[in-house]
Design a protein that fits this description.
The complex is a heterodimer of chains A (40) and B (135). Helix content of chain A is 50%, strand content 15%. With 40 residues, chain A is α+β, with helices and mostly antiparallel strands. Chain B is α+β, with helices and mostly antiparallel strands. In chain B, helix 2 runs antiparallel to helix 3 and helix 4 runs antiparallel to helix 5. Classes of the chains: A alpha+beta (40), B alpha+beta (135). Chains A and B meet through helix 2 and strand 1 of A and strand 1, helix 1, strand 2 and helix 2 of B.
């Protein structure tokens, strides 16, 4: 679990879908949009 | 994850994002094209292997939607062959066959896909869908 938590923490999640889409357009990469209700 | 721009929306902080993208349940993940078009949706918790297979399936779907059928076949085939126990594997095999057909217009990949599905996943609905190609 500790390893998973560390791997998750390494991902730099954006918090704004429009910012993500702007970056997607700039880089050509798709957006992975994660909807969560888990404690942050 | 390097192949995506990762964005997280929390139900308490961004309920408007849930509404905008019609997220009905958590966890849900969407693969969005660069113009914001939804290409793949994952709803509900999945174990790691299944989740990774779904992400690869999303990338494969993206290539298919862009009519890059060779890339799509490669990506679907990757899920089909490297993650054969994932819940999405039979579907990936099906779409690998469709992608190969779209790339070549030759029916052989469809027949081969029907055979592969019948052997590996006899109970899958994707095997039943492919059964029409087995003639």
């Amino acid at each position: 679990m500790e390893t998973k938590a560390r791997e998750t923490a390494m991902i730099e999640w954006l918090r704004d879908a429009d910012e993500g889409l702007a970056r997607a357009r700039a880089t050509g990469k798709p957006v992975l949009l994660d909807f969560s209700a888990a404690p942050m | 994850m390097a192949r995506f721009i990762p964005v997280k929306a929390h139900i308490k902080e961004q309920p408007q994002t849930f509404e905008r993208f019609k997220a009905l349940w958590t966890p849900t993940q969407l693969v969005l094209d660069t113009d914001g078009t939804e290409r793949h949706r994952i709803e509900g918790f999945l174990p790691v292997e299944d989740f990774l297979a779904q992400l690869e399936q999303g990338l494969a779907r993206l290539a298919f939607e862009h009519k890059d059928y060779e890339q799509a076949e490669q990506a679907f085939r990757g899920v089909c062959e490297r993650r054969p126990r994932a819940g999405v594997a039979a579907e990936a095999c099906y779409w690998a066959g469709v992608s190969a057909y779209k790339a070549t217009n030759a029916p052989d990949p469809l027949r081969a896909t029907a055979k592969l599905l019948r052997e590996r996943y006899p109970e899958s609905e994707w095997t039943r869908k492919a059964s029409v190609w087995a003639k």
